Amino acid sequence: MSAVATTVLAPTKDLLRFLTCGSVDDGKSTLIGRLLFDSHNLLDDQLALLVDDSRRHGTRGAEMDYALLLDGLAAEREQGITIDVAYRFFATARRKFIVADTPGHEQYTRNMVTGASTADLAILLVDARKGLLPQTRRHSHIVALLGIREVVLAVNKMDLVDYSSAVFARIADEYREFAARIGIEHSTCIPVSAAHGDNLIEPSSQMPWYQGASLLRHLETVPIPDRASTQPMRFPVQWVNRPNADFRGYAGTLVSGQLRPGDRVRVLPSGRESVVARIVTAAGDLEQAAAGQAITLTLRDELDISRGDVIAAAAQPPMIGNQFEATLIWMNEAPLLRGRSYLMKIGCRTVQATVAPLKYRIDVNTLEHQPTDLLALNDIGVAELSLDQDIAFAPYAESRELGGFILIDRISQQTVGAGLLHFALRRSDNVHWQAIDIGKPAHARQKQQKPCVLWFTGLSGAGKSTIANLVEKQLHAIGRHTYLLDGDNVRHGLNKDLGFTEADRVENIRRVAEVAKLMVDAGLIVLTAFISPFRSERGMARALFAADEFIEVFIDTPLSTAENRDVKGLYQKARRGQLKNFTGVDSPYEAPLRPELLIDTASQSAEQSATRIVEYLRAHGRLWT
């Protein structure tokens, strides 16, 4: 009788992703470093490097400085704080872990948001001597907003308060009350001393009054949510794979649900349907794909599918919308302004988003909703967003992938904010484009011209209105159809409710750009004479028009020259402090980087400038003969 060999596979250990957060210098890096050290997750060379780094960079005298295991940047070691997000992998007999050590300083809150965006649990540290601080509450609020429902409050530095149970109880009670108010479902409070290892791996003899689990034991046993496998199938397309004429596949990661060949799917936002033909991977075709797998799909039908589209279960598709209420976490020194346009990246799709209105900011200490026209660095607020196209979405509470997004500055391309979609606004379903038989081409043929907008920009007193008026007179004399939108005139009617704050200036230009677009659709040559001091708003205006329809005309006049003219006496009032937010005095002007026309008023008269602009229109085929 021959023996049959059998192989018994050990059960696969699950993975817990967690982050450490809290105020600056609360001991986050020290806690994780000591946890790695005491759980024997360091290699010999890492130990040797820790000993050497502690001697050269440490802040604890002759003792080892465990924070140096996480603080990898030179600036971090010099300042003794965490700046970047440091990720570490470690494992115990029960579970695998990926930990994100995030900064505590307010300046780097955006890095904390990055670490929290993929975490299942948060360890929030507080210094036992200081208790809950504004940054503690801010990080707790962000944790709650990002859908993390398991929070550990690690009350650190208990050795510096003589391991007092009363101190711990006061902080724990205060935090539990706050956590319940902001929607954190499960909060566990553990007293620790990261520097000495108390209650990290084993219960501490210094705190016999604490009867709960140690930090590591809690991390090993806390339930891990598995929402992705129970949700409907969602597959954002990252790349359309066309290696040859015989293969067209759609590559990406299955973010939720399961998928099999033969499943009927719907492509969004187009709404077209087909059937899955194959599930392709580098290792061969699959009979079934599960959430988290990177795959390539092929469909039975040839559909127009692009990066950013979402392939979903036909019977359970996500919603479609272009106007939303959303929570915003602002992460940039320059404030978010009502009416300003940004790029919005949600999943694999990038669209244009305008913030209007900005409903309120949230006081992280009192949770009060405060009316505001802007969000400053680290502010959290709620706004309505208007997109330039439909997207497939789900509320963030249901799907991080289809409900979470970032905002990107159109000019600098920097990430300036993160957001969470709540719901589509009802009017998105009620307002539709009405088909019109007489469109822009028909209007243009009738007027024998190619419509466009001449966007005059420059300082007050530069000569914008004067030159624009002369251009319109020349065009009118040769029978062209025009309209001049002047900054002062518009503020008597359409924009009379706006002041001169930065937020109002943004809204002023947004409205003018929309009106100019309607007039261009009517076949007119539109002239706008506005300071329009910010590149972002001029970029937003440009984006509303076809590539050759927006002609930026920079009336380049030195500030001293414009101020000497001062026909209206505005500069004098601004210098005396009687006019606030005056461009060139106490509000900036951002000169165009690549205008279609640069008019130097120091070298040519207003009449010569106007003639040059008309000749530009003629040379570029705007004035039909």
Keywords for this entry:
seven-stranded antiparallel beta sheet, disordered N terminus, Elongation Factor Tu (Ef-tu), domain 3, 29 strands, globular, 17 helices, six-stranded mixed beta sheet
Q: Taking all residues together, what is the mean pLDDT?
A: 85
- Largest beta-sheet details: 7 strands, antiparallel
- Find the count of extended strands (DSSP E, 2+ residues): 29
Give the count of structural domains: 4
Oligomer: single chain
At CATH level 2, the architecture of the largest domain is 3-Layer(aba) Sandwich
Give the helix/strand class.
Answer: alpha/beta
CATH class of the largest domain: Alpha Beta
Please tell me how large the radius of gyration is. Answer: 30 Å
Query: Roughly what percent helix?
Result: 25-40%
Low-confidence stretches: 1-11, 71-84
Count of alpha and pi helical runs: 17
CA distance, first residue to last residue: 101 Å
Major beta sheet, strand line-up? 7-15-11-12-14-9-8
Strand coverage percent: 25-35%
The CATH topology assignment of the largest domain is Rossmann fold
CATH evolutionary superfamily of the largest domain = P-loop containing nucleotide triphosphate hydrolases
Which geometry do the CA atoms define? globular
